[in-house]
Amino acid sequence: MRYKTVAIGLIAIFTVLFMINYAYDQNTDITVEQVSYSQTRSLMDTTVTISVIDSNETHASEVIERAFDRMYYVDRIMNNYDNKSELSILNEEGSVRDVDYELVYVINRSRYYSEVSGGAFDISIQPVLDLWASKYSPGGTYEEPTPEEINETLILVNYSAVMLEGNNITLGNDMKITLGGVAKGYAVDLAIESMIDDGIDSGFVNAGGDGRYIGTKPDGTQWRVGLQNPEKSEDAVTIINVENMAVATSGNYERYFNDTARVSHIADPRTGYPSQNLISSTIIATSAMDADAFATAVFILGEKDGMDMIEDVDGVECLLITTDKRIIRSSGFSGYEMN
Prior knowledge:
Elements: E1 10-11, E2 20-25, E3 30-43, E4 46-54, H1 57-78, H2 86-93, E5 95-96, H3 101-116, H4 126-135, H5 147-154, E6 163-165, E7 168-170, H6 183-197, E8 203-207, E9 210-214, E10 223-228, E11 236-242, E12 245-251, H7 254-257, E13 278-285, H8 288-301, H9 303-312, E14 317-322, E15 327-329
Antiparallel strand pairs: 1-10, 2-3, 3-4, 4-8, 5-7, 6-7, 8-9, 9-12, 10-11, 12-13, 13-14, 14-15
Helix pairs in contact: 1-6, 6-8, 8-9
């Protein structure tokens, strides 16, 4: 799997392809028409929508194109299914030199997520993911790995063994890493930064459930993001009002419908087994990468440990759906919900 696939969705309440408002330009003494311009593309194994509020369609199109370019750039570097990407070369050769700053930054930031979560988030989980994939691929046993196989593979999982020296990266013997829990969020952040650099102060980027929203809608209200109800995909468990914040969800709704569902796409790097602690975790944070990584970490940690971690991190809030279908909020989450 190239990137973390979100099994639950954020309902796109905020997505409006054509929205008009009028703003007064003090420099020209005229009223400027503000329009929402959006484009949607398939990228990073998901559907990405970029929307900007602008008064000029040509400028808006150029802004959106440059924002997508930043996301394509992240994909070229961090796609471990592209043999030419720096990440694939690192996994194949065990070390790379003079790599892009972005790869160094994301790996270094990932160490922080690992430390804060007590190892529940770990980019060196790839050998475990490969082991499970081999069992359920053509020619595999279609049975879960044996405890012996799990234990042998867990020896390779150790985020502290990923060494950074300047722009050089080295892995321990036979280690491999994946950035599936952070790359998409980081790409969203770069796209937003590109939009801001181009003079956009209102809009959003949503990549399959990883979204970041700046400014407000043309009518001055905050962006509205709905968390999908697992029982009714068209309904929302809750609706969040966000402005200059990011939202991400990790989870496995399969367990909501089928208690015998065993295999989650998110494995616990501490045990080597798929995480079964929650149905979903939704994070609100200032950056999409933080939201992305903490959503994964909380999903693995479970109700108590996950919520304890979030309460200790400034500026981050969380909503959990437990396996027995309870909804739990961090202390500040309700401040973002509609009254």
